Amino acid sequence: MSALAERSEVPARPGWRAGLGEAGPLAFAGIVANGGSVLVTVVLARVLAAHDYGALNQLVGIFFVVSMPGSAVLVGVVRRVSRWPGTTEEVGTWGATLHRRGSLALLLFAAGVLAAGAPVTRLLGRHDPVGFDAVAIAGGVWVLLCVDRGLLQAHRDYRTLSGNLLVEGGARTACMLGFGAAGLGVAGVAAGVLVAELCTALHARIVARRTWRERREPESVLDQLARAVGTGVVGRWTGARQRGRRFGSDRVVRRDVAAAVGALAAIAVLQNIDVIVMGREGPRAAGAYAAVSVSSKALVFVAMVVAGYLLPEAAISWREGRHALRQLSVALSVLAVPAMLLVGVAAALPRAFLSTAFSARYVSAAGAFLPLALAMVCLSATVMVTMYLLGVGDRRFVRVLAGAAVLATIAVVLAHGSPRTTALCDLVVQATLLGGAVAELARVHRTRPAGPAGRADPADPADPAA
Q1: pLDDT tens digit sequence for 368-413
Q2: What DSSP character marks residue 217?
Q3: Alpha-carbon distances, residue 111 vs 104, 106, 338 (angstroms)
Q4: Could you please report the per-residue DSSP string of 149-203?
Q5: Whole-prediction pTM value?
Q6: Could you list the residue range(s) of the whole structural domain that residue 157 is in?
Q7: In a domain, 212, yes or no
Q8: Model confidence over 427-441: pLDDT tens digits?
Q9: Which of 141, 132, 75 shows the shortest CA–CA distance to 109?
Q10: Total number of domains in the chain
Q11: How far is CA 402 from CA 64, 262, 268, 385, 407, in A?
């Protein structure tokens, strides 16, 4: 019996009202958290020189490229738990083992970043490796954080997940502004990102363990903190390791994770390649373009948050032989509100908004605001459809995403640092990609219509349609 089947109190296919009740808190938390991030960028835009502000946004783009595979970890955890053959207690034990292994991988990754920081920084046209080291390691911490967020999603504990998002938003706001106010410059702000992610990861470990309890007896707060940072007893490590081997034996989930890594890494490139290339090809315009980019790409972050509701709903419903198109519609409806607000501002008063929010130094890229906003609306919808496809086990769309990422890179390089041309090229690529995503969604439901409960997984190797 699946571990999730034990939770009969959770409706498997919620209606619109129930769906909005579950997706709504996530969307609210995402908007508040990203609102805090926008506030940070607005304050820093007024404090830093335009050149330094462009450098900071280049580092933020690197953070999102490094951290995006964490969303693949979310996919793997949710898909694994939706296929779990044992009990709920075993899920918690397996999650603890996975977290410990991820912690070791994070330490090795951090060592590699510190060793390669100086040459990579020179390649990006910068001279101080501290900022790169901090944001790259912070991205690795976010990947580890996704293990626990995946456990919360698989449990359908959306309110606790919303709380963790608010912790992240508050910690980022406090640490980035605090380190920046201390006069530490761009490197200090980047270090603030790292400290915030460490705090968020610790909170996520504690609440995920509480949700999927490894044992029934109560624990003190100090015991929870100790176990959250990996100081558990060796015997429990060994016992958890034996149960954790089930993850490695599930070839379907391993293939899903590999596909998700490719898909979400491509999305990270599609989201941030324009800022990274602009910082190199047009450093004088990078600061103004960064203001437009921050305003537009906040929508993509909201989409990723709302996808935290869509992913487990799609995985669980499809595994039970049903589709989750209603949940997809709910998620897109929630996303439509901030999308319309963004496009309205970009179309009606781009210069006034940029001047008020960022200062008059950043209005030179106002012509790029509307096309980039439309491009990010397309990418946000693509993110939703992609997470749905990953949830149901479809892997074919990864090749389309990879091709679009390559095409977007070539397009923004050929723009030669022109903000408006860069945004227009991005819009063409993103609109074309969205059309491909919708076509793939239709293909999946046409070739694999929902059937009775217990139907084979669409990604199962024994399934001829896989």
Answers
A1: 899 999 999 999 999 999 999 988 888 889 999 999 999 999 988 8
A2: S
A3: 11, 9, 40
A4: HHHHHHTT-HHHHHHHHHHHHHHHHHHHHHHHHTT-HHHHHHHHHHHHHHHHHHH
A5: 0.71
A6: 19-447
A7: yes
A8: 999 999 999 999 999
A9: 141
A10: 1
A11: 17, 7, 11, 15, 9
